[in-house]
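tool=predict chain=A
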Amino acid sequence: MTARNRTIVVRRAPGSPQRGILSAGILRLPCALGRSGTTIAKREGDGATPVATMALLSAWFRPGRMRLPSTRLPVRRTRIGVDGWCDAPTHAAYNRPVRLPFPASTESMARTDRLYDFVVVLDWNMRRRGRGRGSAIFLHIARPGYPPTAGCVAVSPTDMLRLSPFLSPRTRLQVER
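tool=predict ok
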């Protein structure tokens, strides 16, 4: 990627709306997409990956699970039992990191399944929040075999390490139709 082209592009893989090909510089990496494929009308809980160009805002890293990827993003250390993400559309903290326990619906950032061992927060419904437009849209670690996500983009741990030098606050992730 050059200074002018700081966009990571995700295209749907031929014949599978829940799989994609992520392109960054010379890298072409397989990725998982939402169980409902991609959409231009993202809604909370629909299982779709939003078609959009999103800034990379920050990252979370869970020590002891994988090597810390080399990135220029601000990285927060994930704390077990403390760090969560609010996915309750009617709560004021909707689509924001929160401290657990929390009175509204949340997901833990310290998952046991390793999906969030390294997770990049994408600017989907973050800076300009809309109630019910979708929360916790991340670039994160994929399950083996790349089964669909709940709406995120996911790559293997090895590919996340390969991709990490491209990740900076100036980078955009563009999901295409």
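The longest strand covers residues 52-61. The longest helix spans residues 157-163.
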